[in-house]
Amino acid sequence: MSSIxxxxxxxxxxxxxxxxxxxxxxxxxVAVLDVGGHIIxxxxxxxxxxxxxxxxxxxxxxxxxxxxxxxxxxxxxxERPSFVAALATLASSGIVPAAGGVIVVDAAGGPIGAxxxxxxxxxxxxxxxxxGLAAAGLRAxx
Length: 142
Known about the structure:
Elements: H1 6-22, E1 29-34, E2 39-44, H2 52-66, H3 70-79, H4 81-87, E3 101-105, E4 111-118, H5 122-135, E5 139-140
Antiparallel strand pairs: 1-2, 1-4, 3-4, 3-5
Helix pairs in contact: 1-5, 3-4
C-alpha cells in the first residue's frame, strides 16, 4: 500500500467522530493527508470553529514534514522555540506544535500519510486520531 485510500480516510474520520461523541468532546475537525501532504479527505463536525480544519491539516502536515508526530513537535517547540517558529515560514500548510497529528505507516513502517485532528484538548484530539486509525485497520508511527 502506498497511500491511505479515500475509503480508509472516511473510515478514520467517521470513527474519530464516534470516539469524540463517546468522550463528549468539543466539535472536531479532521484532515487526512497522503504521503505528499495533499488532502485525501477532511470534515468538521457541526459547531466546530472555522479554523479547525486548517489546524488539523497543520498538525498532520507538520508531522509529515518533520517525520515525527505533532506531539513530538510540541516537545521540540519547548526545547527549540525559535527553530519551530521558523518552520512556519517554510511549510505551506503550516506546522502546529500540539498533539493530534500522527504519521500513518504501512506494515514495513514506511509512511503512507498522516491524520490531524483539532477541536478539543490535544490529548483528546490524539486519542480520536488513534481510534480512527484502529477502526480503519491502520497504525500510527511509533
